[in-house]
Amino acid sequence: MLNIRTNILFDQSMWKQLQNLAKSQNTSIGQLVRSAVKKTYSQDEIQRRRAAAIEKTFKIRPKLKNLDFEELINYGRER
Fold first, then answer.
1. Contact in structure between 33 and 8 (CB atoms under 8 Å)
2. In a domain, 69, yes or no
């Protein structure tokens, strides 16, 4: 049930974009805004995007093999 009203100011260009998008999707501008807010700020979506970012980070970072971390630490201390 929708029971809270708000006002949002858009520039003319953004308003036209929203009108065209709403018309093409056969929905209201209000529904477009609600969907965008839900997608952007809902906790489930935030958690999903964080998990995807972490997974992507692990995929692209180099694999460290046969490194002597103690030697690296000592090397850093000497400098």
1. yes
2. yes
